[in-house]
Amino acid sequence: MGNRLTQIATRTGDNGTTGLGNNQRVSKNSLRVHAMGEVDELNSQIGLLLCEDMPAGVREVLVEVQHQLFNLGGELSIPGFELLKEEAVAALDAALATYNAQLPKLEEFILPAGTRGAAQAHVCRTVARRAERACVALGNEEAINEMPRQYLNRLSDLMFVLARVLNRMNGGDDVYWKSARMSQDADAK
């Protein structure tokens, strides 16, 4: 892996470039740097979510996710390197199965709302989707491993499920979309 930072204000990026983990310099506007930035923002948003009250099991999952996102960012920063493993995706699948089994089946769309924790989980979900799109765009231009895309895809799904869990934590519920179709169906009855 490349050199670790020993100081923050290096001034080496003043010309619009940044150093990758392999010491290669690239434009700060490159697809790789965009993908790295989206993953970094996602990790920060999850850090903010962790400030909220939540079940211990959810907290443990999210702390592990933060570590895996750091691995994912490291992998993106070193072209051709692999840090994110299949086991990380499998762990998300297991968490999805565990938490989804506790929830009632969805019969209508829900809004990204409810408790502050649930709303923040939805923010994490949307940032995960954006990070996934950035990895797809990068993968269309350069070779990248499959695990980053798969991990971000599963993580977005998990954040949706965890938002529902967080809304129910103290007896709450999802915030359902009041669609015109549902209103018409209710009026017809």
TrEMBL record:
Swiss-Prot/TrEMBL keywords: ATP-binding, Cobalamin biosynthesis, Nucleotide-binding, Transferase
Catalyzed chemical reaction(s): 2 cob(II)alamin + AH2 + 2 ATP = 2 adenosylcob(III)alamin + 2 triphosphate + A + 2 H(+)
Compositional bias of kind Low complexity: 10-22
Residue ranges, annotated region (Disordered): 1-22
EC number: 2.5.1.-
SUPFAM superfamilies: Cobalamin adenosyltransferase-like
Keyword Nucleotide-binding among UniProt keywords: yes
Gene Ontology MF terms: ATP binding; corrinoid adenosyltransferase activity
Gene Ontology biological process terms in this record: cobalamin biosynthetic process
A Pfam family per the record: Cob_adeno_trans
UniProt keyword annotation of Acyltransferase present: no
Ranges for domain Cobalamin adenosyltransferase-like: 8-165
Enzyme class: transferase
UniProt record similarity statement: Belongs to the Cob(I)alamin adenosyltransferase family.
Complex formation: Homotrimer.
Protein name stated in the entry: Cobalamin adenosyltransferase
